[in-house]
Amino acid sequence: MHVLPALLAEIPFWKNPDYLKRAAITLLILVTAFLLWRLLRRGRARLDDLLQSKRRTVPPLHIRGLQLLTGSQIVSALSLLSLTLFYGLALLNVIVALLLTFSQFPATERYVNLVLGWVLTPLHDLYYGFLASLPNLITILVIAILTRFILKAVSFLFTKADEGAINLSPWVHRDVALPTGQIVRAVIILIALFLIAPRIPGTGSEAAKGLSVVIGLMVSFGSSSTVGNVIAGIVLTYMRPFRVGDRVQIQGTTGDVMERTFLYTKLLTPKNEEVLIPSTKALDGNITNYSAQARSGNLILYTTVTIGYDTPWQTIHQLLIDAALKTEMVEPNPQPFVLQTALDDFYIHYQVNAFTAHAEAMPRIYSELHRNIQDAFNAAGMEIMSPHYTQLRDGNQSTVQGPLKPKATRFRVAMD
């Protein structure tokens, strides 16, 4: 019966009343941590119930008409975020409770200081590093704001120049106003980046410089063709060989210019085929612009027929001119004209030239012109000497089509 009081007398708890205070504080810490954990758990459950009840009523997320997330996906993302936040706060609650508990006992107090050092030292460094970088961050913010205002002013200026509200000639022509604006904007952004780069925290270290060099080399070797296309596109832009909507021929492809960028030119052929031509390819070859002269009605369409020597050239000239004038979208003034381009063994080459203002309708104009030439010569009883005939036939008989064609007669070929 006297053993228990003796044992209790040996326990430091009873010798030092401060242990009772420490035990009470420890118990209070554990109870508080438990209550906080229950509060977090209940709060998360209520939040999850609220999100699930709103799953069908949350509207989808749209940006400029493009749906990025449905309402169900938004609710799922918020639910995942709440779960992550719950586990993070619960873990923080446990860590704080353990640190406060261990700090109550001298035997474990040094471990608490060690762990706090691991956590607080990086936070201390980040805090003072942020304070040291604050002037540079403010400078970066000012440069970014000024750059944004300048870019908006440049965009407004060159957009108005493209619309014709502002005249920047002779420095910048209207048809190259938008590409020039893009170049100016790119230069302004590069200048801003050069001003910002030295002020970014960490860019002064040797590792960051080495990484910048490696990235620069990778971009240089990996995009040499792209850079070449951009340079060729800039040259083409200021050469002004065509506009959007012009009928052109580039690298043997004929079509209307749908889009022109620094990297490529997009053509729509008469067969509704979209063709992308890289800027380097366009710069290396010939570019034929049919619309440049068609806008003033001076585009010349021409075709050649071959007629025998027995027909007066005055008659042929008149027939070809009449056929051209009957063709729709051929300009009567200036009047079509005929050139005799070659004197061959059996026939003469007559080239009829007609003016038009409709470059986009070239295939249809040519087709109608050829039909009218055929009708005119058939009506006049004249034979177009092409294509060549390889079969035997009576040379005295004509191949004229229509009611004026003479009646065919037989002929005999004598063989020795």
Describe it for me?
With about 425 residues, this protein is α+β, with helices and mostly antiparallel strands. Among the domains are: about 10-60 and about 70-105, no CATH class; about 225-290, Roll (SH3 type barrels); about 295-380, Alpha-Beta Plaits. The chain is about 55% helix and about 15% strand. The strands form 3 sheets. Strands 6-5-4-3-7 form a 5-stranded antiparallel sheet. A hairpin with a 2-residue loop joins strand 3 (about 245-250) and strand 4 (about 255-260). The chain is elongated and about 145 Å long.
Number of strands: 10
The profile of the biggest β sheet is: 5 strands, antiparallel
- Radius of gyration, in Å, reads 44 Å
Cα separation of the termini? 158 Å
Task: Specify the number of helices.
Answer: 12
Domain Mechanosensitive ion channel MscS: 226-291
Organism: Terriglobus albidus
Domain Mechanosensitive ion channel MscS C-terminal: 303-384
Subcellular location: Cell membrane
